[in-house]
Amino acid sequence: MPLSKKTAFSDLFTRDFSILFLAHFFFASAVWPYVVFPAHLLALGADPFFLGIFAAGASLSSIIIRPFVGHQIDHKGRRIYLLIGGIIFLATHFFYLLPNHLGAGLFAVRLLHGLGTGILMATFFTLGADLSPPDRRVSGIAIFGISGQLSGAMSIILAEKIVEIWGFPYFFIFCAALSLISLILSCFIRETVNEKPDFPLERLWKRAFSPSLRIPFLTTFLFSLGITSYVVFLKPYTKTLGLPHVSYFFLAYTLSAITVRLIGLDYCDRYGPKAVLYPALSSLVLGILLIIILPSTFGLIVSGIFCGLGHGWVFPALSSIVISRGGESHRGGFMTLYTLVFDLGALLGSPLLGLLVRGVSYTAIYIAAAALVLLGVISLHFFDGESSTT
Q1: pTM for the structure as a whole
Q2: In which band, very low, low, confident or very high, does the pLDDT at 287 lie, cut at 50, 70 and 90?
Q3: What is the mean pLDDT of residues 196-215?
Q4: Nearest to 144 by CA among 134, 156, 129, 154
Q5: 3-class SS at 123?
Q6: 321-335: pLDDT as tens digits
Q7: Rama region for 384: left / alpha / beta (φ>0; ψ in -120 to 50; rest)
Q8: Relative to the CA of 187, which of 200, 235, 289, 352 has its CA 20 to 30 Å away?
Q9: First to last CA, the chain
Q10: Do the Cβ atoms of 99 and 44 come closer than 8 Å?
Q11: Which pLDDT score is estimated for 1?
């Protein structure tokens, strides 16, 4: 018998899950505002390709550190890396105040930004899986992810206003303050790893390339490419249309992602994650296409709704598949690999889509992004031989 939503929430929101939820909320509140960061790069003289290169810098360092972090958080525990990542991430925002031109210094800060974000993303979502009941892991990860979605609805609006009134230096200070709150909260989260398994990094990589994980990882990669199209390039695209704010899109996006998770709280756990992936990915395809079909403020709101409905379930459903097929006892390693593949999409997608803008148009990148996400749907349906419940 399905749990009532009241019981489901009370079972999930233990002391540590609640603190983790808040810590991730403030961390994500310092991450989401960077969707307006491309405007800073454009003001410094970047064209779309170099904008993509600088955006990819954070993904590059995040990907490099992920395999090490994934192995270590299973071997040495989650808490120490939550604090290390938090300190690095906090320092990054202050370093952005130093370089005021495009060059090696700013790119180095982007690398540091990715280092902190990579460590925190892997550790936060591993802890979210740890603190969710095993029979309700998808809904647990989905509810935990609401903290990240909810933060976007507010922090982007505030960030745009801060930039308009005071400029980007105060934007970086704003993000630093949010990061500090997240770090303080993280100090109160207890360790979830009692037994530290001996699982060599080589075995983790070998299992990661097993046939059962290939299609989920491919779908994750294509999903990430789709998201990169609007996280990195929506702000520059709307500037060409004369639309002043991307916050309309992201407000609709985050509210629809939260709503679909709350309405379908136990659907994934009851019917299996693959049952929601097909409609969710299809909604994301439609949302991306609507960005160019309806080039207006109203269009941003509508496309944001469909993209949010898709993202709302794709991320937790795919992460649950990866964990269940990789092995429950090594959640840290496989959750880290999952977020690594997600960042790989941003790393490759940012410069490649930037080149496409430079050579063709913004319209071309959204058509390409929608086609790639659709390819993920096709791959999952025709080439993934595993049961629909995993």
Answers
A1: 0.75
A2: very high
A3: 64
A4: 129
A5: helix
A6: 887 776 665 666 677
A7: beta
A8: 200
A9: 20
A10: no
A11: 43
